[in-house]
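[job 4417] fold queue: 2 targets
>>> target A
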Amino acid sequence: MARLETTQARITRIFDAAAGGKNHFLADKDTVRQFDQAAPALTTAARAVLEFLSRMIRHLSAGEGVDQFLIVGSGIPTGPAAGHGLHEMARHAGAPDPRVLYVENNPMVVTMAQATIEPFTDLVRVVEGDVREIDEMLRHHVVRTFIDWDRPVAVLLLSSYSLNDDEYAHYVIKRLRHTAAGGSFLGLLHTTFDGIPPELLPAIRDLLAMSLPHLAIRSREEVAALLEGLDLVAPGLVWVPEWRPADDHLACREEPASSGNYGAVARIP
């Protein structure tokens, strides 16, 4: 297992810190503070992302009947309240015994989740893997055996921020599409600069260059290209607060672009 890296911020830990969770280090909190000084919206954007993940999982579980989830790169956010893990949302929303497999490339997140989640349930597993090594990830013994790949599964690709090579990003989507059974779903979260005011872009770019130099940023058209050929579940590819909003009190509801992220769910034929 890779050495724990506590001095370099990671995007999933940054979102966890911004949302008031516990899976992060001082470097991540410092990055949140720096972003809020440059453009005071990260905390609200983090909430909007977590709310989107919650609605997506509830829809897939309750609305589509999915009882298997492969969640790649979520950081397993803890959030400010107990009992609101992504696996817990899946259990409460639909099938009583959904199987949830988290794949994370962050050793700290893997170690903590294995110690705090796995001992209490046989229906959740956490393994170390990296979407940037998609073939190796899909060959992992737990990935191959914990999920029944002959039945529909929801694959939630939440670490698209790490796929900064367009050709490889398309390959990842292709591999996931071909691995999952027909009737499966692909959920996608992707960071963008589309909604950032032009006057703030230089400061944001400079900050990212220092804190998250390899973060993949794509326009809506570029994200849509990754999903080409798939049947998007309504409302399609939208700002995360606009994806099946549940109420009027969602983060970034009044200014969806301030969430900084697009979200979509697609059916795999």
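>>> target B
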Amino acid sequence: MKKQLSIILAFLLSFGILAACGNKETASNAAEDKEKKELTIGATSGPYSDMVNKAIKPILEKKGYNVKVVEFSDYIQPNLALANGDLDANLFQHKIYMENFAKEHHLALSEVIIVPTAPMGIYSKKFKSLDEITDGSEIAIPNDPTNLARALLILQDKKLIKLDPSVNPLTVSEKDIKENVKHLKFKPIEAGQLPRTVESVDLAAVPGNYALAAKMKLTDALALENMPDDYRNRIVVNTKDLNKQFVKDIKEAVESKEFEQVIDKEFKGFGKPKWMLERK
């Protein structure tokens, strides 16, 4: 009987120690989260690092954060840096890219909120409007599947082509074109090179970030895409951080009227996400 009591007491003592350790660890994590005021946010250089610096960082600083912005020149490192803890959040990617990258690299990433994004546009030095496009005109289009789909959807929206209605609009390609009203000739080009083609082809479908990097005005496009939210950029964090206070504060900053006022003034032509349009 004494032996049984000893075992029970030992078990209860052990449980109590573990519980105490668990409570202490939970309290420590909560305190760490509450006290975290140093944030490092990564973004690709250009409009999205500008967006963090001009529209997000000042609001977070008013909330007591010290914000460091790290610029990247590629689409690989921002997510790797986030996953290994060098960043607290990043801004540069759309949903499809995030999900594919996370799956390929076995990462747990989650979006916080979608932000206004530079849309793809149809540009031309030859034509001043879509109505002027002549039969057989050559158009430079992105050669990667995601951006190609976006370009074709713009052309369909403007009734220049008709796509197979049964295909996935996010993965549509040239083979899905059922009608080509102006008999456009497609010239696939690497997306980053598309701004240079505006001088040499009749038309060019240029993603907004590359257009801005080439000092092109979004408002000069003959047509801008009606971008689905899946293609808009979002602020992304590690999934384990999703419910932390600093993430909630980032989301609140983007949802603020102050943020939208900066967008309207400094980022003309950027398409706003559905949540922002619906609150008006």
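[job 4417] complete. Note on B: The radius of gyration is 25 Å.
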